[in-house]
Amino acid sequence: MAEFRFHHGGVSVPSLDEALDWYGRVLGFELEQRFYIKGARSDTAMIRKASLRFELFEVEGAAPLPEERRVPNTDIRTHGNKHVAFCVPDLECFLEEMEAKGVDIAFVVRESFGKGCFIRDCAGNLIEFIEDATP
């Protein structure tokens, strides 16, 4: 099988400037590159935090995120990409930090099989964080 590795995830947002601010202020991403994709009519940015990359798209005339895509339990009822997930060493500390920053916390799971949460970015897109204390 051909080898491959993860490069980035992509998120469509209504305001690129607002998303750049949110992803930087809330999650610590930094702007790596900003460019325009003529064929997609998209003001675009690649953001980075260590080895993690996200591509943010502000597309002219894009439809808003449907309400059911803003809730984890209803989002999975529609086929397609759902979300990205990141590991945090301590979910409770992470939640405290997100609450202090005024982040929209969509869903928290504290079960015998594990702990995690979903937050919404400034456009309502879901991002999952899972507690994983392994180094």
What does this structure look like?
The protein has 135 residues and is an alpha/beta fold. The chain has two domains: 7-61, 2,3-Dihydroxybiphenyl 1,2-Dioxygenase, domain 1 (Roll); 69-135, 2,3-Dihydroxybiphenyl 1,2-Dioxygenase, domain 1 (Roll), CATH 3.10.180.10. The chain is 19% helix and 40% strand. It has helices at 16-27, 72-75, 91-100; strands at 9-12, 30-37, 42-49, 52-59, 84-88, 104-111, 114-120, 126-131. The strands form two sheets. Strands 1-4-3-2 form a four-stranded mixed beta sheet, with helices on one face. It has a four-stranded mixed beta sheet with strand order 5-8-7-6, with helices on one face. The longest helix has 12 residues, at 16-27. It is globular, with a radius of gyration of 16 Å. The chain starts with 8 loop residues before the first strand and ends with a strand. The model has no long low-confidence stretch (mean pLDDT 94).
- Provide the low-confidence segments as ranges: none
CATH class of the largest domain: Alpha Beta
Percent of residues in beta strands: 35-45%
Strand line-up across the major sheet: 1-4-3-2
Largest sheet geometry: 4 strands, mixed
Q: What's the helix-strand series?
A: EHEEEHEHEEE
Return Rg in Å: 16 Å
Q: What is the arithmetic mean of pLDDT?
A: 94
Number of helices: 3
User: Superfamily at the CATH H level of the largest domain?
Assistant: 2,3-Dihydroxybiphenyl 1,2-Dioxygenase, domain 1
N-end to C-end Cα span: 29 Å
CATH topology of the largest domain: 2,3-Dihydroxybiphenyl 1,2-Dioxygenase, domain 1
User: What's the architecture of the largest domain, going by CATH?
Assistant: Roll
Helix content: 10-25%
The secondary-structure class comes to: alpha/beta
**Can you tell me the overall shape?**
globular
